[in-house]
Amino acid sequence: MKIHVKFMGLGTLYKAMNKKKDLDLDFPKNHVTVKDIIDSLIQRYGVHIKKALLNQEGDIDMEIRVLHNNKTFLTYGQRMDIALNEGDTLQFMSVG
């Protein structure tokens, strides 16, 4: 399963990800969540991604908006569990 991930206004991520603003992630399984995306990014690019995206409770920081397929903002507190489908786009962007 392939998911396209974009980043806007998140300078820390931009640096940690070798100046990439978007990328495609491939997963061997059919059930992928936002948490799987973040875990994959942390595994690939290290702890800087974790610090930039997650709060101390392990949820996506409130200062980051998550947009699904360029139209739906994911609600805080439920974002990690959202199921994704083949070809979906997930966009992380700074609130400010």
Question: Which features would summarize this protein structure in a list?
Answer:
96 residues; alpha+beta; 5-stranded mixed sheet; 7 strands; 30% strand; globular
Structure description:
This protein is α+β, with helices and mostly antiparallel strands. It has one domain (2-94): Ubiquitin-like (UB roll). Helices cover 26% and strands 30% of the residues. It has 3 helices and 7 strands, in the order βαββααββββ. It has helices spanning 11-16, 34-45, 47-53; strands at residues 2-8, 22-26, 32-33, 64-68, 72-73, 83-84, 89-94. It has a 5-stranded mixed β-sheet with strand order 2-1-7-4-5. Strands 3-6 form a two-stranded antiparallel ribbon. Helix 2 (34-45) crosses helix 3 (47-53). The longest helix has 12 residues, at 34-45. The protein is globular, with a radius of gyration of 12 Å. The N and C termini lie far apart (32 Å). The model has no long low-confidence stretch (mean pLDDT 89).
